Amino acid sequence: xxxGGALLLADVARGSVTWPRGGCWAxxxxxxxxxxxxxxxTAGANWLAVRGLLREHxxxxxxxxxxxxxxxxxxxxxxxxxxxxxxxxxxKVLAANPLLWHHLDTGARRARESGLLREGAMPxxxxxxxxxxxxxxxxxxxxxxE
Length: 146
What we know:
Layout: H1 2-14, H2 19-36, E1 40-44, E2 47-51, E3 56-59, E4 64-70, E5 76-81, E6 86-89, H3 92-96, H4 98-113, H5 121-143
Antiparallel strand pairs: 1-2, 2-3, 4-5, 5-6
Helix pairs in contact: 1-2
């Protein structure tokens, strides 16, 4: 939004702004906000939610049926539960917030024990190794042992 405002101000200072051009700058600013708005990931006992610009998506972690890692320009973790609910987010969020990881891991273990989670052991295992390894390195570094 600030970029759209800056472009509009530059156009005003130049003296070449018109209503259509001003509208275009406003649309560009709003579009940039919509595209770049970071999703907010929250979790609680047996649920994980991802809130975007307009809507929140939520899954039950104890009722997960599928966990998939989607690699591309931006890696994504895709979770789906028995009700068909789906969330998608960057796995770095879990590495940055151990409490979120704990809620997801606890729920996924329950889903695996109950036989619901049949697809996704590999991505969760790799993620657990990475997060736990980073946590251990951080702990050792803060203790001065690394």
